Amino acid sequence: MSQNGKLMPNLDQHSTKLLNLTVLQCIDPFVKEILITAAHVTFYEFNIDLSQWSCKDVEGSLFVVKRNTQPRFQFIVMNRRNIENLVDNLLGDFEYEVQVPYLLYRNAAQEVNGIWFYNARECEEVANLFNRILNAYAKVPPKSKVSFTKRW
Questions:
Q1: More confident residue, 147 or 94
Q2: In the predicted structure, residue 9 carries a pLDDT above the cut 70
Q3: Which helix (H) or strand (E) holds 59?
Q4: Which residues contact 74 (CB under 8 A, 6 or more apart)?
Q5: Beta partners for 52?
Q6: pTM: predicted TM-score of the whole model, two decimal places
Q7: Which of 34, 64, 85, 100 is most exposed by smallest CB count within 10 Å?
Q8: 110 phi and psi angles, rounded to 5 deg
């Protein structure tokens, strides 16, 4: 029990990861493993016609996961703002650029999004993982370091 009288769980890092994996498997039973977690992110979308960023209704913890089936790698945001979680695939037509604390990306649907990380170190770690996954599994060299500001 904490000082303010609220019951606080005492979970170590391994137990927390197992609990998070169980929750993610309730959403997607094909999730096999959590590769990395970012404690708090906020999503933005880029309107190409207006050349303007706007905040999406997506905020929460980000999980990069490995799955038992295709698509093999995804990232999932457990959304605290509403009941719709964000899920995006990492392989395929996925391009990204890092401008810490932002990770900007274009997905297979050609949507341009930005992820703001509360913790800049987590932004760099997630970007490094994206790079390793894309280098290891892409059929063609990954399209990272794309200049979003010049192309849009």
A1: 94
A2: no
A3: strand 52-67
A4: 28, 64, 65, 67, 87, 88, 89, 90
A5: 47
A6: 0.83
A7: 100
A8: 65, 20
Say which residue the tokens 């089936």 belong to.
69
3-state secondary structure of 24: helix
**Structure-token pair, residue 6:** 């609220």
* pLDDT band with cut points at 50, 70 and 90 for residue 152: very low
Q: Could you tell me the two tokens for 7? A: 């019951």
* pLDDT above 80 (res 8): no
What type of residue is 142? P
| SS3 state of residue 67 | strand
HEC secondary structure over 71-139: CCEEEEEEECCCCCCEEEECCCCCEEEEECCEEEEECCCCCEEEEEECCHHHHHHHHHHHHHHHHHHCC
Q: Angle at the Cα of 14 (from 33 to 19), degrees rounded to 5?
A: 65
pLDDT at 15: 86
